[in-house]
Design goal:
With 478 residues, this protein is α/β, with parallel strands linked by helices. Helix content is 29%, strand content 23%. The chain has 14 helices and 19 strands. An eight-stranded parallel beta barrel has the order 12-13-14-15-16-17-18-19, surrounded by four helices. Strands 4, 5, 7, 8 and 9 form a five-stranded antiparallel beta sheet that branches.
Length: 478
């Protein structure tokens, strides 16, 4: 491995042995124990700014080294050094940073900081390592919403407002153990490399990933397989590294409006229950251009006013508290505007939420897309009807981005299954991007050998079922 830094060139930086030789007295173990890495910033496909917080002491101290390695690599490499930490007389701590370049696109990395306490040449003390992933390069940069203007439709773009249109196409993955996914989610985590590689081989560029904040908030518990919050976050980080490392976007979505302890009508006034989980995830993943957030899955049995209040609170949380300014996916009422009735589409409500997002500090323009979900039983005679789908998502409207974040082959009973509907829907969603400018893409439900007919895979977890074949060949083109 070889990395570069925007500070002192390698040729001018003392090597580790030299740094050991010139290390001066520190305040001992207390310094090492109080060092903390922070999420990296300005992450691109080839560079990142590493951040850390180190303690202030009664005197100057140093050096503090920056260590970096590619995730899974056994050897750390010194990529920078703070020769002197000077905040004498101050209480608390101070921030340090190091810009590194020469990183590999779509790869996972770990970094840490190290200090050498007295006597000189003693053991180095290291902070906890923090992981991050680089962007996937020019083929998969940060998604950017370009709002509609007059007769010009809203679009999703690659990297910037001037980039090419970006189509997101992929699958839903359980991936973690909770009160619904149980050991199936744990098994997918253990097998995540094969899962992600198979999804990528089918032609996907997106994984929509399930979370359940109510189980997270009460962790550890039997529902989480007795995993602690820290262990759950680590697994989410591992999934991010695995998915993004294969050049796919990683979209995290809470299922609390549908499956949580305060789901369905109980979601009214309880949208904030997902906020701490997303704060912890955001702190762990940092400003990753390949990570997207979807507030919650399928709000139902709530009014538009209740939906608006919850969504405004969550949008404000993401923008102001978490500092996330990227694409935020919003599920409307009626199980994400599920089916052909259009009960979850409202131009005024969508427009109001877009205006609210755009007006928040640092935004300038909104960065919202609206989800839509579909299953065969919601269509007359379980026959795929493209005209009914178009009508339900606003007809010829061009103002709001529409993102089919979930469509499946089973909805509650074996009688709901229709292979013909599934194949027709998969083909339609694959082709819709070319004909509707404000259409984002689609994610089929659900990858893996799940217990019902939504399973895309046979028992071995790789070979596709009939439904999986429709997803692979018709939606993703794999």
């Amino acid at each position: 491995m070889r990395f570069t830094t925007s500070r002192t060139p390698d040729s001018q930086r003392p090597r580790t042995r030299a740094l050991l030789a010139i290390a001066i007295a520190l305040t001992g173990l207390a310094v090492g124990c109080r060092m903390e890495t922070k999420p990296p910033t300005n992450v691109t496909s080839s560079s990142a700014t590493l951040n850390a917080q180190v303690p202030c002491t009664s005197g100057d101290y140093g050096p503090v080294l920056w260590d970096l390695r590619e995730a899974g690599h056994p050897t750390w490499e010194v990529v920078g050094a703070e020769e002197r930490i000077s905040c004498s007389g101050s209480s608390g701590s101070t921030r340090i940073f190091e810009r590194v370049a020469g990183l590999r696109a779509g790869a996972g990395y770990e970094f840490r900081v190290a200090v050498n306490p007295p006597p000189s040449g003693g053991p180095w003390l290291h902070s906890e390592a923090r992981r991050f992933s680089t962007g996937g390069g020019s083929s998969s940069p940060k998604p950017v919403v370009v709002p509609s203007s007059g007769t010009t439709p809203a679009t999703l773009r690659s990297g910037s407002a001037g980039g090419g249109r970006l189509q997101l196409r992929g699958v839903n993955v359980w991936g973690l153990q909770d009160s619904i996914t149980t050991s199936f989610g744990a098994g997918q985590y253990a097998n995540r490399s094969t899962v992600a590689s198979t999804i990528k081989s089918w032609g996907a560029n997106l994984v929509r990933f399930r979370l359940l904040a109510d189980d997270y908030n009460s962790a550890p518990s039997a529902a989480t397989g007795n995993l602690t919050k820290a262990q759950i976050i680590q697994r989410i980080m591992d999934w991010r590294d695995t998915v993004v490392g294969r050049g796919m976007y990683f979209m995290l979505c809470s299922w609390d409006a549908l499956d949580g302890a305060h789901s369905d009508a109980g979601w009214a006034g309880n949208g904030h229950r997902v906020h701490q989980m997303f704060a912890d995830i955001r702190a762990a993943l940092g400003d990753d251009p390949m990570v997207i957030y979807e507030v919650t899955n399928e709000p139902n049995n709530v009014s538009w006013a209740q939906w608006e209040a919850n969504m405004q609170g969550s949008i404000r949380h993401f923008r102001e508290t978490l500092g996330y300014k990227g694409l935020l996916v919003i599920d409307p009422i009626w199980w994400a505007n599920s089916g052909t009735g259009g009960q979850g589409y409202d131009d005024a409500r969508y427009s109001g939420l877009e205006a609210y997002d755009a007006a928040l500090p640092g935004m300038g323009s909104h960065q919202l897309a609206f989800a839509k979900h579909d299953y065969a039983t919601e269509y007359a005679n379980k026959a795929w009807d493209p005209d009914a789908w178009r009508a339900a998502q606003g007809g010829s409207q061009i103002k709001h981005l529409i993102f089919e974040t979930e469509f499946g082959n089973y909805n509650g009973s074996p009688s709901s299954v229709s292979a013909a509907w599934a194949a027709g829907a998969a083909s339609f969603f694959a082709g819709r991007f070319a004909t509707q400018q404000n259409y984002v893409g689609a994610a089929a439900f659900v990858f893996g050998p799940w217990f019902d007919a939504n399973a895309m895979n046979a028992a071995n977890g790789q070979n596709p079922t009939a439904w999986g074949t429709s997803v692979k060949d018709k939606l993703l083109g794999g």
